[in-house]
Amino acid sequence: MGKARAARTIIFHMIGTRAVFLFAFAKSDTEALSDSETAGFRDTAKLLADLDERDIERLLAIDEWIEVEPDEK
């Protein structure tokens, strides 16, 4: 049997019904984030915190962001 495919994700949770995934990577590709990557994600999270629903809808409308719907089981 092969190893399970595992991934890490960097998520910035917005208040409301959306969660924004900033970055996803396979554990086999990257063991840990560097200090500069961590700082960059923190800076980005601060910028995202200022977005409102209207901003998010605009980003989706111009295909800058994609929306991922949860699987219904």
TrEMBL record:
Entry's Pfam families? RelE
This protein's name: Uncharacterized protein
InterPro entries for this protein: HigB-2
